[in-house]
Amino acid sequence: MTIDTHFQTGEKVQFVATLTGATGLNLDCKVFYNQKNETELSTETLTVERSFEYPGMYSIYAECKINGSIKPFTAEELFFHVEDALSASKLQIYQQQSTFHTYPASTELIFHHKYYFPISYALMVNDVIITELQTAPTFDEKKISSNETAKFELNATMQRLVGPGIHYVTLLLQNNVSSVTFLTPVTFNEEIKHLKVMTKQYVGLQPNSFIISATVSQGAPVNLSIDIKSTQTRLTVYKTSTFCSRDCHSMVVEATLSRAGIYEVEATARNKISLMTSNTTFEALPQIFDVYITSRGFNFETRREVFVFIRGDLGKYEMNLTIGENTAKNSTLTISKSEYEHEGLPNLPFDAKPYKLIKDESIFNEARQVTVLIRNDKQTFRFVGNVPKALQTSCLESVRIRDGKVGGGLDEPLKVVEELVLSVDLNFICVRELFSVDYKWRAYRVTSRVDIPKTGDEVQLNASSVEPELLIKANALLPGLYVIKVYANITSDDYHMSLAKGDDFTLVEIPARRLNFVIKGGNVVEAGLNTTVLKFESSIDFTKHEGNIKRDWFCAVTQEDLPMTKEIGKIQRKGSCFDWKTLWVSDNDTLEISRNKLIPSEQYYVRLIISGPHYDATFADQKFIIKSKPAPVVILRCWSNCEKLFSSHKPIILQLECDDCIRHSWELSLKSGQQMSLCKNQRFCKLNKSILDKVKTSSNVTGTGYNIDGDKASASLILAPPIPPSGGICKVHPRSGIAYVTKFNVTCHGYAQGRVPLKYKFFTAEKDQNNLLQHGCDPNLNDVTFPSKTIFYDVMIWVEICGPRQACIVKNLSVSLTKNHHDNTDVISDLFNAISSQNLQQTAQLMLPMSSANILERFQIKKVYERVAKYPIKTLMSVKQLADVVRHLVDGFGVINDYHVRLIAKIMDRIEYTVRNPSTSDDDDDVIRSIAASCIFVTSHLMQFSDDISFKIKESSRMTRLGKLLMASLIPGEDTMTFGTKSVKGKFLKLNNDVINPLNGSSSFRLPNIQTLNNEVMNVEVFTYDSSINFNTRTHKVDQVTSVSMTTGWRNEIPISRNDAKNQTIGFPLPAQPGKGNITMRVESECDVAGCHSKAAGWALFDWKLYKRDGNDLFLTIHVENMDQKIRNCTMSLQTTDQGSFKLKKEFHEKELLYTWSISERSLPHRQVELNLTVFVDLGAGFYRIGSLINVTITSFILNCLHWEDRMRDWGESSCTVHQNAGIFNCECDVDQVTPNRVKRSGEEEIPQIIYASHLLVFPNKINYDQVKIFVT
Fold it and tell me: What are the UniProt keywords, alphabetically (predicted)?
């Protein structure tokens, strides 16, 4: 018989009894329920449905006897439990209230509820588990409908764990089939001692409020009442109160008064066991709360406007304004309104509406201190500010943070959901080529928009706070409101004097911190009976986050039983994976569960709850299924785009890790019911944009692995798409214009998503590259010009509008251009202002048209290179723009000298480092590939310009690193990726053992079938450099160079060992330029009565000299081909023309279209000599008329194979030899035991690569040479 272990009262339960092995026997069988009721088992299978009115333990067994037999035989008795289903409505729980509980004297908490069985109790005060109780072990039928009492003693030790005051008590009532939570407050009263009430001596009037504070040395809870009376009339003019539940040492209330006068405030603090009072006096009269001083007008010897913003109570004051050493100006200050409308204000770091503005004009050109004294009847308020020195040569018009706001920096705060990048624009009214800008970003935490940021409110920012671009991460600052201020100080490069200063502000909001994570392996995983330990791990490393991050793991047999709070999970037992233990399992970084400790069930659920200071608690779940038979161990690993909400911008790359699997399958299940098969029989599966665009709602992707026995296991991942912005529009104005002259503006609006700032990226396309013109929160691209390739030209512009998690939409625009024969040289001044202020975004916009116009002088190009080399870069978008700028510089203006080569190489180093160590989460694969493509273009130009062979070798190592960026999103099984410039061609692919190598055996590319460990990924990069990049050394001349890098591993790559690659054939193209020559042979036919016999002969002369005497055995290779007649065999002979004794002969008896003769150099004369090549062909029995001719093509050359030796800093030949039996037009090189060279750059990892080269010896003047393909193997 089969049976569960726990049932609910009243639940209908099916029992199934099966009789087996009774064929031919006359049996009398009965089934007994709890030893009372019986049912006759008349067939082989009996199904009976029963329900149980009362809880308790029951049993069931079957008894049979053979007819005629006296003694029956009995099946094993099975026991099961029936329990009452608990609910709040049934239990009717209430707490018996005592008059009070005195802290910390021992007391009791008493709860009453209707009787149900069984019940286990757990009591928790706040987050502290106090105690647990169990009910009586047996059911008492007499107690039905009566009340049950549960008593919990709280002694002094327990109370001190939580302290005095009001606390929330959680009472959990549970059994194996249900659970109920009852929440109630409890008060532990502590005697109040030493009350003291305080306020300022002078306070303000309505509508402004003032603070009254009260302190006690001990006591909680505290009900604090405030009574304010006039000292003249003794009438109460204001009452307020506050309640402190616990931690009542300091309490604060706000109060307001409408009239001036002297008042007494009395504070009364009470609780159930004590009462205390305290009083003090103060005076109310109009107050000044804040003053902000600034100025406008930076020109030499002009009138300066000084602005004084004053926020205070309504009323009249005496005001004294002193600027520098000037005579004080006295006046009456009247504040008559609570809000003012201002126009034409300078930029302010606060909302100016509550401020009264006082203006003053003075003439001064030195920095001045401004002192403001404001008096009421009793007080003097003193505020001091400074106005900067008037700058004689200022070209600065304004400083603007690119935050996308129209009405100034403090309209509405920008909400930082993940991260926010702010950059600054400096606008100039003139040009000065030699200047620098020092930037300083500051952040001030404020409580409202009207608060003036003070020095004491400043918080520390990251290292980018002195750069023109600031990165703010949501988790880097505490939640709250911040004024972000940028200071720009312009100094001259020649005299290092200050030329101008400016600043701008914006307001940002940091919400509560959240940690986005998932449990590795998928949302649903399967494990077979052969699995002994199940492992669970979070997708992020919490050690990188500030604060004490806490992890709590829980396990339940149903998802409904998983706790929403970790506190409940620590006391709840119902639904536990481990019988009657709590749902809480561990607080370690990872969780391991032994399968044999789980209660029998088909499926389980694990929840990880993450919490910490200033972090909202978040959780992630994983369902795991235990199969009823052995199964392969399948782990679903996500390599890219692995957040709960995937990014619409980059592919999701998944891998099934399974050592025993021989076959794999993938399926995408959409909410519409559509099933899509993916990535047929591959361990890796890439869901690119075309697939992700179909995922409109939450969907599942499932990977399944099959072993050799046909057993299978699956793992699933939930795909939740983010919602992209919508409802807006983008326009460009004007729609047409003149290249290099017309300034275009792109505007977008209508895409706002509350206070969450959207990211806007503006691109144009040029050749096979896209150019990033601007990125950030600004929805407008202003005053940009475009180049033109032809007289009439259309420029494509597209705008990416992205919300959180890179949920983006793209808007396509275009403008029509006509080419201007006179390029606009005014942009030169704009460019130098941009590069001097390190404004990368403006530089990218200006460099696009300028690189095509070629309007910079040589000395200007030098300055541009020097300035661009100093650009700070932090974010991936700024890296993309810098790479675009350098590509335009190199492509448009070239590389002038070695100094520029070194500068650009350093820029490439910084770009590489930033891409590999991104400070932002905006890791767009398309952007990374675009950066790598631009850098490869620039690097190939540097290699062409430089004559330093060591530099070229190092840059070839850079090519390998850049290739890794290009192939980052490749997976095994995808087509080979190709990329190239005019001088460099690259091929990239990834392989593993279960993917057929598409390049092995190819005529242009060959790879070994290298067996990698544990089905690891093999990464292959091949770069081929043509002759325009000169790799010659003093001792060796080479025609072409190819670098090969083969590594294993997805993220942490290691080079393939030589032992793995031993006895393998590695082939790649090394095209050289040997020549071809044509000779004409006259046919002679000899005929008799038996038939004809025809033959022909021809010859060619070429000069020979010994190529080398030591080292590898080289071969003179001769190809005879393209005969325009059918021949039977061919004979070639080689001899000197000086009647010497040297003579070689080679006979070919096969009928071929091409004949190849490879002659070892050791067999040829060791002196300079002229060689005569004679070719004799047998044409067989055919008849040829007199004068018939045969045209033959002859190719002769010597190829040498070399590889780069790091230690020698030269090409080596010892382990790289020409293969003697080369194929048709192929010359192969045998490479044996070549150790990969490791080029190490400062601060970079070593990059293993093997660099091969060939050298072709050409015999001049005698034969016209053309081309041959050479393969090194």
Answer: Membrane, Repeat, Transmembrane, Transmembrane helix
Residue showing tokens 């007199």? 1186
Sorted by sequence, the CB contacts under 8 Å of residue 427 that are 6+ apart come out as 396, 397, 398, 399, 400
Per DSSP bridges, beta strands 202-203 and 275-284 are parallel
Tens of pLDDT, residues 749-758:
988 766 678 8
Which residues are CB-neighbours of 724 under 8 A, at least 6 positions away?
648, 801, 802, 803, 807, 808, 809
Neighbours of 637 (CB within 10 A): 18
Residue whose C-alpha is closest to residue 220's, from 239, 254, 241, 195: 195
Q: In this structure, how many other beta carbons lie within 10 angstroms of the beta carbon of residue 931?
A: 27
Residue in this structure with the two tokens 């001596």, named with its chain if needed: 201
For the chain, give the mean pLDDT: 83
Strand-strand pairing, 590-594 and 533-537: antiparallel
Distance CA 174, CA 1269 (A): 81
Give mean pLDDT, residues 197-216: 93
Residue 804 is predicted with a pLDDT of 79
Distances (CA, A) of 719 to 606, 693, 1160, 1242: 19, 12, 64, 41
Helices (H), 112-230: 156-162
| pLDDT, tens digit, 9 for 90 and up, residues 357-409 | 998 887 666 778 899 999 999 999 999 988 876 655 567 888 889 888 765 55
Q: What mean pLDDT do residues 132-157 have?
A: 89
Among 194-208, 1236-1250, 1259-1273, the minimum mean pLDDT is found in 1259-1273
Q: Which among 79, 315, 98, 117 has a CA at the least distance from the CA of 202?
A: 315
Amino acid present at 282: F
Query: CA-to-CA distance for 1041 and 1039, rounded, in angstroms?
Result: 7
Rounded Cα distance between 320 and 1061, Å, is 88
Confidence bin at 544 (pLDDT 50/70/90): low
CA dist., res. 351 & res. 357, Å (int) = 13
> How far apart (Å, rounded) are the C-alpha atoms in residues 1019 and 1016?
10
CB atoms within 10 A of CB 317: 23
Beta bridge partners of 240: 226
Cα distance between residue 720 and residue 1129, in whole Å: 72
What are the tokens at 505? Answer: 């502000």
